[in-house]
Design a protein that fits this description.
16 strands, mainly beta, 207 residues, single chain
Length: 207
């Protein structure tokens, strides 16, 4: 009888703890700026899983222990070392530890292999603010990546970068809007300990 009651209370506690863990780690964030167009626009509300990579105490930033590492293509919530005001950033992982990253004529090379670019018609995105786009919108793919990007057709200060060998425990991240994004090209690599969660889905889009 006592053992059965103990099992009953343990079951209740387990359900309560798991519910608290889910509610406390699936958090809403507001996207500000156009650095991730066309994937996100300023004003989007997104859900981030704060325990995607590290078990995190609900409703806090306190991590208990890591249980998996991010993957290429993940949209992550992160800090940059050079970012003094401690704002979170939402960026996409392009380069993994050990990779050699190079950008040449607005195209990304991973370990000397160029990613593929399928150009899309800009008219498809007429509901967006076209002034924030580059001249081209494309599906960028390869190395497990497949997502929308916008970039410049002509060469500019952002057109070339590297080559850079990514050090162990660090990640090279970019915004999907390559003509208007502060990312690893300017702010450096993101250390593993500065990654705080993974994008799950968009909850709300204004208008």
């Amino acid at each position: 009888m006592i053992q059965r009651q103990k099992n009953k209370y343990f079951g209740y506690f387990s359900i309560f703890f798991l519910t608290l863990l889910l509610i406390g780690n699936f958090r809403t964030y507001l996207v500000l700026g156009e650095s991730d167009l066309p994937s996100f626009i300023s004003g989007d509300k997104v859900i981030i899983n704060r325990s995607a990579y590290d078990l995190t105490l609900p409703f806090t930033d306190q991590r208990i222990f890591p249980w998996r590492n991010p993957n290429r293509g993940d949209m992550i919530l992160c800090y940059f070392k050079k970012n003094e005001n401690k704002d979170f950033w939402l960026k996409r992982i392009i380069g993994m530890p050990g990779d050699t990253i190079r950008i040449k004529n607005n195209k990304i090379f991973i370990n000397r292999k160029q990613l593929k670019y399928e150009i899309l018609k800009k008219e498809t995105f007429r509901d967006y603010n076209q002034n924030e786009f580059g001249e081209l919108i494309a599906i960028e793919s390869g190395y497990g990546l497949k997502h929308l990007v916008t970039y410049s057709e002509t060469e500019n200060i952002l057109s070339n970068f590297g080559p850079l060998v990514i050090t162990n425990g660090h990640y090279f991240v970019l915004g999907d809007n390559r003509v208007n994004s502060l990312d690893s090209r300017f702010l450096g690599l993101v250390p593993r300990q500065k990654i705080f969660g993974k994008y799950l889905f968009r909850l709300y889009r204004k208008g």
